[in-house]
Each structure stands twice: as C-alpha cells, then as structure tokens.
C-alpha cells in the first residue's frame, strides 16, 4: 500500500513545480521580443 502522507507530499510538490514553471513561462512570454 502506498503511504497517503507521502503521496500528498509528492502531489503538492508536483503542483507547486507546475505552478512555478507556468509563472516562469508567463514571465518569459510577457517580455515579448526581449529574448
């Protein structure tokens, strides 16, 4: 059986990572032709 606490920890970390990548993507694209 999987540890529920560990699963929730991994899920929250994955969510935070995806959120971080999304905001990073948004920051880069909002710069426009800067890159």
N-to-C span? 48 Å
- Which percent range fits the helix content? over 70%
Measured by DSSP, the beta-strand proportion falls in under 5%
Sheet of most strands: none
Class computed from helices, strands and strand pairing: mainly alpha
How many individual β-strands? 0
Radius of gyration: 15 Å
Word description of this protein:
- This protein has one helix at residues 4-31.
- The longest helix has 28 residues, at 4-31.
- It contains 1 helix and no strands.
- With 35 residues, the protein is an all-alpha fold.
Structure in a nutshell:
With 35 residues, the protein is an all-alpha fold.
Features:
mainly alpha; 1 helix; rod-shaped; 35 residues
Topology (SSEs and partners):
Elements: H1 4-31
